[in-house]
Amino acid sequence: MIILIAEDNAILQKSVGLLMKWWGFDFDLVSNGREAVEQAVSNNGNYDLALMDIDMPEMNGCEATRIIRKKVSYFPIMALSGHGGMKSWKNIRQGLIILRRGRSIRGGESL
């Protein structure tokens, strides 16, 4: 399994990286949404999963997800955030579109 991880916090990068190694997963780690888009495109979307931070510099996770969805074949993208506040939840609900096998699901809707 290969996972794309987009996270700008160095401590969380190290923690998630250690977990991925411990569990035996291959992964690519990037620090912002722009890099996530570049990595997904350069790898032709050949990921089993992405863990995408919502609040990152240069380009946030919601915008990166939208661009990735337009440029490469489908792979699941899961929102990841170190923030527990309502602002983050509202950003996820308003901005992140999760696509599941051609069906668009917006935050607040159920499968």
Model description:
- This protein has a single domain (2-106), classed as Rossmann fold.
- It has 111 residues and is an alpha/beta fold.
- The strands form two sheets. A four-stranded parallel β-sheet has the order 2-1-3-4, sandwiched between helices.
- It contains four helices and six strands.
- Helix 2 packs parallel to helix 3 (61-71).
- The protein has helices spanning 10-23, 33-42, 61-71, 86-95; strands at 2-6, 26-30, 49-53, 77-80, 97-100, 103-106.
- The model is unreliable at 94-111 (pLDDT under 50).
Secondary structure layout:
Elements: E1 2-6, H1 10-23, E2 26-30, H2 33-42, E3 49-53, H3 61-71, E4 77-80, H4 86-95, E5 97-100, E6 103-106
Parallel strand pairs: 1-2, 1-3, 3-4
Antiparallel strand pairs: 5-6
Helix pairs in contact: 2-3
What summary fits the major beta sheet?
A: 4 strands, parallel
Number of strands: 6
How much of the polypeptide forms β-strand, as a percent range?
Answer: 15-25%
Uncertain segments of ≥5 residues (pLDDT<50)?
94-111
Quote the distance from N terminus to C terminus: 25 Å
Name given to the CATH architecture? 3-Layer(aba) Sandwich
The neighbouring-strand order within the major sheet is 2-1-3-4
CATH overall fold name: Rossmann fold
The share of residues in helices is: 40-55%
Number of domains: 1
Radius of gyration: 13 Å
- Contiguous helical run count: 4
Mean pLDDT: 80
The helix-and-strand class reads alpha/beta
Can you say what the CATH homologous superfamily is?
Response regulator
Could you state the order of secondary-structure elements as H and E? EHEHEHEHEE
CA-based shape:
globular
CATH class label: Alpha Beta
